[in-house]
Every structure is written in C-alpha cells, then in structure tokens.
Design a protein that fits this description.
Radius of gyration: 18 Å
Shape: globular
Distance between the termini: 15 Å
Number of domains: 1
Order of helices and strands: EHEHEHHEEHEEEHHE
Helix content: 25-40%
Structural class: alpha/beta
Oligomer: single chain
CATH architecture: Alpha-Beta Complex
CATH class: Alpha Beta
Number of helices: 7
CATH topology: Maf protein
Length: 237
C-alpha cells in the first residue's frame, strides 16, 4: 500500500487543532492521535486497549473543550443511514469537521436470524430511546421466547470508517462475529448485548471474556485489526 499519511505533517495539523481539546489529551510525538466520534467511554477504552503500544491512540467527545463539546452535541447529525457503513461515515465525517483531525467512527449491528435480522442497525435503540443496554437485551430475549438451540443464531457486525483531512475518500474496515444467544444473561461486563451472546467455538459470553480475548475474536476486534493493519502501512514516520 502507498503511504498516505506523513506522520510529522499530520502531527503538525494535530498541534494546530490542539486548542480544541482539554489539556493533556494530545500526547507528544511520535504518538499519533485520532478522534473517535463517540461519547461512550467504554468504546474509547476498548479502542485504546486494542491499540496499546502501537503508537496510535484515540480521543473522543469527552476530550473536547467544553464549548466545543456542547456545540458538537447540539449539532450532531442524525444516524439516518440505511446501512452500518452509511451511519459510520456520517459520524466519522462529522467528527473530522468538529475536531479538525483525522476521525474514526464505528457502527455496530446485531443481527438475529430468527427475528429476520432484527435488531440489525437499530441495535443501540432496539427498545427505544434513550439507549438502555438492559432494555435492549431483555427485548431480544423476550422476542426469542420459544426459540431454542442452534435456531438462536446471530451475528454481530461492525463497520469502522476513517476520515482523513483532505482525503478524497473514506476508508472502511468490516468485522463479523457469529454465535448464539443465551436464554438468560451472564455476568461480567454488561456492555451492549455481550452478556447474552456466546461466539462460535466458545462457552463464555462476550461479557465474561477478558478484553484481550474479546478483542481477538469479536466483530469490533476484527475490524480493529483491519484498521491497525491499514495504519501500519499508511502512516510513514
């Protein structure tokens, strides 16, 4: 792959935009930041955990200075795309405009075969607004009442998009993880649908796994890996 990001030049652009972020959010070179357009602290932690030691890291809405944070929340565009990729592009493009640095966003769907693909791209708000992890999980379990065994199959899909300043295109990275839905939730990290989903080849729910294991086999972890492989080739120091 052709190197498309000159790290020093890009970092100079980051420093020019540093006033958009709270003090300490931007690390010293050669650490390379990307803006992750999300207000979900769990998601930012998950990204940073995967990329730990790589030289790439992610800052989010919580790292914006207060006036810019308030403006970002007030003016954020609706996620009205018809696909995961479309919604991800809406967010990463908006994030780049707000932060003035390269921006990443992801959109994740949960596709349950016995429910005709529901909740699909509406996984985060399946039970209505505002987003409520527990309500979403319980509605899936309720709608699967009477369905057993392999018929409870489902897939998580994740699309990460990267919007670079001045780039003519947005880059997309897709990951999928298939498995089955439990009849009741498990313990551990209560993020999203993780407590009710067991991936193929495992007995543990996502919620019971270490981040190291989950990041290797999850939909988001697989998309992370594709993004990481891209950045290793695309960024020249």
């Amino acid at each position: 792959m052709k190197n498309i990001i000159n790290a020093r030049q890009y970092y100079a652009d980051v420093k020019a935009a540093e006033a958009n972020f709270i003090q300490g959010a931007v690390k010293e070179y050669p650490n390379i930041p990307f803006f992750l357009y999300t207000g979900n602290a769990d998601k930012i932690d998950e990204f940073n955990h995967f990329f730990e030691g790589s030289g790439f890291y992610f800052i989010g809405l919580k790292n914006l200075v207060r006036p810019l944070y308030e403006e970002a929340k007030k003016s954020e565009p609706p996620e009205n795309g018809s696909t995961l990729a479309a919604n991800s592009i809406i967010k990463s493009s908006y994030g780049a405009g707000i932060s003035r640095i390269a921006s990443v966003a992801d959109d994740t769907g949960f596709f349950v075969d016995a429910l005709g693909g529901e909740p699909g791209i509406y996984a985060g708000r399946y039970a209505g607004e505002p987003c409520d992890y527990e309500a979403n999980r319980m509605l899936v379990l309720k709608n699967l009442s009477g369905v057993s065994g392999a018929a409870r199959s489902a897939a998580f899909r994740c699309v990460i998009t990267l919007c670079l300043p001045g780039a003519e295109r947005t880059f997309e990275f897709v990951g999928e993880s298939r498995g089955v839905i439990l009849e009741s939730k498990r313990g551990g990290n209560q993020f999203g649908y993780d407590p009710i989903f067991v991936p193929e080849g495992y007995n543990e729910a996502f919620s019971e796994m270490s981040l190291e294991l989950k990041n290797k086999i999850s939909h988001r972890g697989r998309a992370f890996q594709k993004l990481y492989d891209f950045l290793k080739e695309a960024v020249v120091f």
